[in-house]
Design goal:
The structure holds two protein chains of two kinds. Helices cover 43% and strands 15% of the residues of chain A. The termini of chain A are far apart. Chain A has helices at 14-25, 59-72, 96-124, 136-139, 145-165, 183-186, 190-197, 208-219, and strands spanning 5-9, 29-34, 50-53, 78-81, 127-132, 170-177, 230-233. In chain A, strand 4, helix 3 and strand 5 form a beta-alpha-beta unit. By secondary structure, chain A is an alpha/beta fold. Chain B has a single domain (4-76), classed as Non-ribosomal Peptide Synthetase Peptidyl Carrier Protein, Chain A (Orthogonal Bundle). The N and C termini of chain B lie close together (7 Å). Classes of the chains: A alpha/beta, B mainly alpha. The complex binds NADP nicotinamide-adenine-dinucleotide phosphate.
Chain lengths: 241, 79
Amino acid sequence: MSGRVVLVTGGSRGIGLACARRFQALGDQVAVTYRTSPPAPSEGAGEPLLALRCDVAVPEDVEAAFSRLEAELGPAEVLVCSAGITDDGLLMRMSEERWHAVIETNLTGTFRVAKRAIGPMLKARRGRIVLISSAVAYLGNAGQANYAASKAGLVGFARSLAREVAGRSVTVNVVAPGLIDTDMLSALAEEHTAALLSRVPLARLGDAAEVAAAVEYLASAGAGYVTGSVLAVDGGLGMGH
Amino acid sequence: MADEATFDKFRSCAVEVLQVPAEKVVPEASFSGDLDADSLDLVEFVMALEEAFEITVDESELQGVETVGQAYELVTSKL
Ligand SMILES: NC(=O)c1ccc[n+]([C@@H]2O[C@H](COP(=O)([O-])OP(=O)(O)OC[C@H]3O[C@@H](n4cnc5c(N)ncnc54)[C@H](OP(=O)(O)O)[C@@H]3O)[C@@H](O)[C@H]2O)c1
């Protein structure tokens, strides 16, 4: 077997799954984590992905997933953190629970996974970490204070980690998608999506595969001199921010 | 328990993690100067020692530890 060992969290659906398929098409050995159910086998998708059950909000799950990954494929050389949730509501009505749940999965979950992945990367003196943030991190979005805070937090986290591990040729970058056509978007009220879409210069939703292409680039050999950057894939919504 | 075998084990951790020749791992060697180790190297080194000796080292205990001898003393004090 050849190719890099790639781990994608939140790889059961949406953007994470699109990334996993992309790496698989490149010949990499790909594992995905899922929380509820493993990715559905899709036609012509080639080899099944190694599916690891893991709720990133549970430290023991993260450890178990990495142990199995390392036993079956070896240590992760590329890590993509796409596991994420929304739980929207205006701040006045936002409970502590909703705040914590989103921060816990999106920000603390990413901290947990990246922390576990980084040791073997430092030892190998190479590695790529790509975090999936959001255009909302910079723009803010009414009703998404918890989500936007978690996604902005990822940028500061990524840039700090990028500095810590740069001396070992490990890069850490962020992709900030805009409106991407996945289950997460379908959960949003239709008029809300329409209002956001009216602000997108390219005037359409993005495809998960278009986000995966950006992730593929940041994980590629050609991106060896790129670290701490945020790559927007948002149809121009944030004009690069 | 500070015998030769213990130091050997300590030294092989240093050789492996810090990628330095064994003969440079002497008590008076300083990590930053003589062994050219940066802060990340030291974190990795401490983690390797924790695993090899089955000890835990608190962040605060590392303050002021600058030489091989000091680090070795810290390890043996926990055995
Ligand atoms: N879609 C967009 O417009 C958009 C825009 C900007 C950013 N993003 C970000 O892109 C990432 C992927 O979103 P998506 O659109 O692909 O969403 P999605 O289709 O809802 O998929 C979310 C993925 O995250 C996993 N997940 C959620 N909570 C988890 C947890 N606690 N532990 C482990 N896995 C967990 C889900 O697993 P299960 O299948 O088991 O639930 C699923 O695989 C998210 O971080 C999201 O914030 C999306």
